[in-house]
Design a protein that fits this description.
This protein is an alpha+beta fold and 115 residues long. The chain is elongated. It is built from four helices and three strands. Strands 1-2-3 form a three-stranded antiparallel sheet, with no helix packed on it.
Amino acid sequence: MIRTTKTVEVRLPLPFVLDRDGPVIFTLDVGYRAGKRCNVASMEELLDTWFKREILSHEEALMRLLSRVWPRRDEVPDIRQESYARVYEVAKKSRPQAPKAFLFAIAKHHMADRG
């Protein structure tokens, strides 16, 4: 059986630009399974399952960071929740390659926006 695969370059908009020299390029394998074309990237996994495993597992570390750097303690849960909402919205379109780093970058940008 011959399996045909093709690499596709996808340029993602902000906030996926993680490199100072330019946008990061992600590749997806597109192949054939049982005669049907399919995307073999991690998008097959349910978003909620991915979010619980890759994002919510860092809640304790995120809260430590927010509590340490944000001066108004009563706003920390709001910043956390808004950061989660932003990550979830972006992950609907494309999953970040480094979820923890992406979550923390979103939180830092959110604090800068609020500042």
